[in-house]
Amino acid sequence: GYRRHAVGFGLTDPQAIEDFMRYGLMFPGFHRDDAFVSWMKRSVADSPEQRFKDYQSVMTFVWKLKNTTWN
Q1: CB-based contact 67:31 (threshold 8 Å)
Q2: CB count, 10 Å around CB of 23?
Q3: Which DSSP symbol is given to 67?
Q4: Helix (H) or strand (E) holding 6
Q5: What is the pLDDT of residue 65?
Q6: Per-residue pLDDT tens digits of the chain, which is 71 residues long
Q7: Which residues fall within 8 angstroms of residue 53, CB to CB, at 6 or more apart?
Q8: How far apart are CA 66 and CA 21, in angstroms?
Q9: What is the spatial distance between Cα 65 and Cα 31, in angstroms, rounded to a whole number?
Q10: What is the pTM of this model?
Q11: pLDDT at residue 70, as a whole number
């Protein structure tokens, strides 16, 4: 199912589609989140692959903030 959703968001690069599917295994249902859908469907010049890569980068940053102990 995640492959179909990836293509639905415009992803065509096989590596990006694979990353999308892996992300779905880590965070089930992420592709239905309103913030994610808005991010992927916003009208910008970036390719869907670049938008997904940027999303992953932002979410990695947020995860690190939430899971890092500040000394």
Answers
A1: no
A2: 19
A3: T
A4: helix 2-8
A5: 86
A6: 999 999 999 999 999 999 999 999 999 999 999 999 999 998 888 999 999 999 999 988 888 888 876 65
A7: 16
A8: 23
A9: 22
A10: 0.81
A11: 62
CA–CA distance, 18 with 37 (Å, rounded to integer): 18
Encoded amino acid at 56, one letter: Q
Q: At residue 7, what is the residue type? A: V
Write down the residue that tokens 């991010």 correspond to.
39
How far is it, in rounded angstroms, from Cα 5 to Cα 61?
Answer: 24
What 8-state DSSP symbol labels residue 45?
A: S
What is the amino acid identity at position 40? M
Question: What is the pLDDT, as a whole number, of residue 69?
Answer: 66
* pLDDT for position 68: 77
Q: Which amino acid is at 67?
A: N
Question: How many CA atoms lie less than 13 Å away from 44 in the CB half-sphere?
Answer: 13
Query: HSE-up of 11 (CA within 13 Å, CB side)?
Result: 23
Q: Which residue has the tokens 């899971």?
A: 67
